[in-house]
């Protein structure tokens, strides 16, 4: 069942709720929708009330005005209020960036976990994140979502053959449906460096995870974040990549979210 909440700027944010127990909000990364949490949500729902949502401008969620990171933080604040005024938050990729930004800005987050927040100063094939974002925005301004999606994937390090293969998969049209929001993901990334001073403001327990088989950037990003966030825990999941197995990720995250209950 699709539910909605109104964000501070009037945008409608669509979400689904499953399970019972303390609230957990799941935030997806680039190209994701609330259905993208389908692998994790049932596992979390065994112990938690799970909220998965369409980030602003995607599928059933609207966007009332120009994009800003602050508006996405407000969207999350609206969901936390619906969830009872406090929640644990899990974010994947750029969803992890958003989760950490929200925690740094003091939202009522009990615990925050992020899987491979993609901080990197050298996106594949580009001299900077700014150049990468400009290429994507140029394609979108020209009305070419496929070119924007390809540019995004090239910046993540995917080669031409891999991108061509992805474009032939059944879910490619769904990716193009939300490709106009790719600049939002790069806005969260900033210049690609970890915003150390901002991350130092995070005052809640924080779990940072990366896949042992991911590129070097993933471990470096987590290490830099862990150095900045007071008391942050970092975990390397051997055999996992950026698209990790939910059955491997979920137990680690759930144990972390339930640590207060075990005391």
Automatic annotation (TrEMBL):
Signal sequence bounds: none
Domain AB hydrolase-1: 35-250
Keywords: Hydrolase
Entry annotated with the keyword Hydrolase: yes
Record-linked Pfam families: Abhydrolase_6 (PF12697)
InterPro entries: AB_hydrolase, AB_hydrolase_1, AB_hydrolase_fold
SUPFAM superfamilies noted in UniProt: alpha/beta-Hydrolases
GO molecular function, a single term: hydrolase activity
PANTHER family: AB HYDROLASE-1 DOMAIN-CONTAINING PROTEIN (PTHR43433:SF5), HYDROLASE, ALPHA/BETA FOLD FAMILY PROTEIN (PTHR43433)
Protein name in UniProt: Alpha/beta hydrolase
Organism this protein belongs to: Cryobacterium tepidiphilum
């Amino acid at each position: 069942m699709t539910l909605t909440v109104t964000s501070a700027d009037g945008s409608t944010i669509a979400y689904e709720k499953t399970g019972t127990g303390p609230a957990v909000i799941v935030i997806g990364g680039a190209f994701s929708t609330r259905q993208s949490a389908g692998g994790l949500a049932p596992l979390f729902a065994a112990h938690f009330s799970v909220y998965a949502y369409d980030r602003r401008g995607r599928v059933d969620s609207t966007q009332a005005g120009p994009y800003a990171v602050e508006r996405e933080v407000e969207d999350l604040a609206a969901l936390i209020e619906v969830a009872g005024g406090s929640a644990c938050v899990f974010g994947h990729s750029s969803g992890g960036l958003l989760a950490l930004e929200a925690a740094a800005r003091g939202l009522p987050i009990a615990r925050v976990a992020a899987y491979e927040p993609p901080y990197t100063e050298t996106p594949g094939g580009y001299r900077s994140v700014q150049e990468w974002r400009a290429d994507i925005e140029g394609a979108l301004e020209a009305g070419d979502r496929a070119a924007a999606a390809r540019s995004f994937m090239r910046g993540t390090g995917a080669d031409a053959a891999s991108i061509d293969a992805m474009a032939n998969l059944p879910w490619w049209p769904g990716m193009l449906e939300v490709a106009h929001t790719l600049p939002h993901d790069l806005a969260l990334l900033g210049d690609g460096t970890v915003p150390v001073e901002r991350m130092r403001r995070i005052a809640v327990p924080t779990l940072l995870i990366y896949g042992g088989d991911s590129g070097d950037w993933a471990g470096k990003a987590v290490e830099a974040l862990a150095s900045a966030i007071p008391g942050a825990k970092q975990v390397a999941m051997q055999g996992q990549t950026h698209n990790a197995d939910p059955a491997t990720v979920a137990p680690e995250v759930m144990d972390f979210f339930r640590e207060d209950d075990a005391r």
